[in-house]
Amino acid sequence: MADAQVKTEGLTDPREARRAKRDAYKAAGKNPYAYNYPKTHDAGALQAKYADLPDGEETTDEVAIAGRVMAMRNNGMFLDVKDTSGRIQVFCHKQTMNEDQLANLQYLDLGDIVGAKGTMRRTPRGELSVRASEVELVTKSLEPLPEKHHGLTDIETRYRQRYLDLIMNDDSAKTLLKRSEITAFLREYMRKLGAVEVENPILQPIMGGASAKPFITQHNALDSEFYLKVAAELYLKRLLVGGMTEHVYEIGRYFRNEGVSPKHNPEFTMMEGNVLWWDYTHVMEFVETLLSDLVKHLNDGATVTTYGEHELDFAGPWPRETMCGSIEKRTGINPLDFDADALRAKALEKGCEVTDTMKWGEIVAEMFDEHVEHTLIQPTHITHLPYDISPLAKLDKEDTRLTERFESFCNGWEIANAFTEQNDPDIQQASFDLQAAARDAGDEEAQMVDDDYVTALKVGLPPNGGYGIGIDRLTMLLTDSTNIRDVICFPTLKPLKTNPAPKVVSQEVNVDADQPHKNKDENEYRFIVVVNGKEESIGRVMNALGHSMAGLVGKEAQGEDFCFIDYKDGSGEVHSSISHYPVIAVKAKNSNQILTAREKAKQAGISFVDFTDTMTIGGSEEQLKATSEKQTDDLNYIALALFGKTSDLKDITGKFSLYK
After folding, report:
1. Is 127 exposed, middle or buried (0-12, 13-18, 19+ CB in 10 A)?
2. I need a labelling partner for 4 at 20 to 30 A (CA). Which of 24, 68, 341, 605 fits?
3. What number is the average pLDDT over the span 426-433?
4. Does residue 484 have a pLDDT over 90?
């Protein structure tokens, strides 16, 4: 006896209609959340097996498939069912399904998970199908799928609700599966080399092994602060001291309390290792061979892969440049010819953001970041990095300002970092002491003194080379992904919450109606516009600067803060100007720095207006839509206009240089 018709008339909310179907299925004595299903075949395997089945032909082969309903046609006669291997059509007809089975179709919605049994058939139109004898609701979906079957386009939803992204976007699943394949290849490759994989602590009592700002947590039972792992190398080298093995490595999660960007996620994956008897030249060859073999594995033996508009060739040997030589090649300035003060002056001439407190090696690194890094498209090794930024590396044999360290770059990104490890306990202690001094001076990324590690060196660490390879960026390159969040199953996102409107600080003044500018100290307040001067063109920057300033004045105009002054020239012509406070433009390196300044302004109650790239898309309606589809943290900021006390703004924008 067929089930009674499900009553959904009058239910305008699709969720209510789905619940009504679910409840009716239960009332019919059936379980809409099955314990299991006797699936025998994957959709992809069936497509391959019956690829040559002629149109209009069918077999007597019995199959059972299961998956999610992605499309329904002709009142459920045709179902498109998707599993992890692909899609296949299910043909439901009274010729092969009895009345009770046909009644099951009324309970179905898009997104439901079903099982189907039947024989294989190719329709006269060429569609391979399961000619169903049974269709069972295996799991009822109470939430409607996104409307567009070609994919989930809302970026925010894709990252926050990855399950929807995977259902709707086949490319997302392929990317994440490719990441898993990359990691599996690396582990198998290392196993064949005889390397030993270990697990090092994530909770560490001392932050060391890399220059980074750590996350800090509290262990209640031990009544102690711990740092989430920023690096593992100090632990790996302890194992080498103990003679555990000659090649030790870890593929693990690392945590650095930095901002998010298309290339940065605070929680990331890295392969880090150390090999006895090697120096940095051996590690260089290892990195080349490893990554070249990985690319060949993923590309049917080819060492060339495509990223965006570039073809990247990973075949070794890769080009090698010294860091100072690469700077000289692009700027005409060889840092080795200058001391810190002279190099600082040269760097400023070249538009680099350097401060009076930066050491020689830090200035070199800034010049490299500004003028070289983005030019390194093909896989390239940059060698002999300065000692000032390499506290764990062996000193160069000829110039102690430098070290036996290299970084590998591709597509303008750092993808590997390696060096000959420092094993002299006295030199290592001196390096730690310099790091401690920098930390005491306010450098939150400086490393801490690890006395036990120095003791381990005193026991004796054999010569060895160490390396770190970022799995996330490597996966981006090898899957043609433009955002690191695309290659991480669940990227770090700001928790959803209602953001309060920025607090406006009103200024009560004794107003002189005739000459309002006399009521203010003209040095006490100012306008500052932070612009994205490194990532954006001059045209977009100027457009954003003007719009953000106009928006700030239009939004916050009140009292004497935004008064107009009429400047009258000798001919009697009037030149009106907004306010008597200075307007200063400063340069941020990227959108994330502007976002950080925005958050600080909000917390301090400082008036601000920002300008994002979504405000440049087409007309106003398109701009509103584009902006609404992104969360605050995911917008690309081009400018941020602020007004407030000079001292307050200095706390927020003091690290930015003047925009030139």
Report:
1. middle
2. 68
3. 96
4. yes
> Rounded CA gap, 96 and 112, in Å?
22
Q: What element of type H or E holds 196?
A: strand 196-197
3 state DSSP class of 280: helix
Report pTM. Answer: 0.76
Give me the long-range contacts of 168-175 (CB less than 8 A, separation at least 24): 172/486, 173/84, 174/479, 175/475, 175/479, 175/481, 175/486, 175/487
Residue type, 333: I
CA distance 390 to 399: 14
- Angle, CA 160 vertex, CA 159 and CA 164 arms, to 5°: 80
Give me the amino acid identity at 260: V
Give the C-alpha separation, 322 to 231, whole Å.
25
- CA–CA distance, 420 with 394 (Å, rounded to integer): 6
| Bridge partners (DSSP) listed for residue 121 | 58, 129
Distance from C-alpha of 473 to C-alpha of 263, rounded to nearest angstrom: 7
Task: Please provide the size of the chain in residues.
Answer: 660
Say if CB 55 and CB 125 are below 8 A apart: yes
Query: How far is 497 from 633, CA to CA, in rounded Å?
Result: 12
Query: Which residues pair with residue 273 across a beta bridge?
Result: 249, 467
Band the pLDDT of 150: cuts 50, 70, 90.
very low
pLDDT tens per residue, range 432-476: 999 999 999 888 899 999 999 999 999 999 999 999 999 999 999
* Helix residue spans in 273-413 (DSSP H): 280-298, 323-331, 340-349, 360-371
Do the beta carbons of residue 379 and residue 282 sit within 8 Å? Answer: no
Provide the b/e sequence for 567-590 (b: ≥16 CB within 10 Å): eeeeeeeeeeeebebeebbbbbbb
